[in-house]
Amino acid sequence: MNLIRIGAMSAGLAVAAGAFGAHGLKDKVDAAGLEVWKTGAHYHLAHALALLLVAALAGQVELKVTQTVGKLFLAGQVIFAGSLYLLAVTGIKWLGAITPLGGVCFLLGWGYLALSAGKLKA
Asked: What residue spans of the chain are helical by DSSP H?
């Protein structure tokens, strides 16, 4: 898994999603929907940058750590931000029940990275 490429592409998509929400959805969804979209874009971008951080740590931590954390952050982006994007444009309320699963992926990724910090390579 090439985390630099994935992180950079994800960051670009997050910027595009933010711009689309601010400009393309302004007259299409209500204020609550725009706020939901904005939250998705915020976490999407934050965790795209986190993927780049994990890529920068390659060589400092075990490969298993970077791969696992990267997969958790990517899954979190898809589930958390993806469900919020869909909720914002469709109004389908049950999508909000999926969002916390993405949040759990983020939390697991950060937790695993924190626990692994004690095992940094010398």
From this structure: 3-19, 31-56, 63-76, 82-90, 99-116
Q: How far is CA 26 from CA 20, 30, 43, 81, 109, in A?
A: 9, 8, 20, 18, 33
The CA distance from 21 to 30, in Å, is 11
CA 112 → CA 35, 41, 59, 109, distances in Å?
Answer: 30, 24, 16, 5
> Model confidence over 43-90: pLDDT tens digits?
999 999 999 999 998 888 888 899 999 999 999 999 999 999 999 999
- Would you list the domain boundaries of the chain? 3-119
- d(C-alpha 75, C-alpha 81), whole Å: 10
The residue among 81, 70, 73 whose CA lies nearest residue 16 is: 81
Q: Which two tokens stand for residue 118?
A: 């004690």
d(CA 81, CA 37): 8
> pTM of the prediction?
0.92
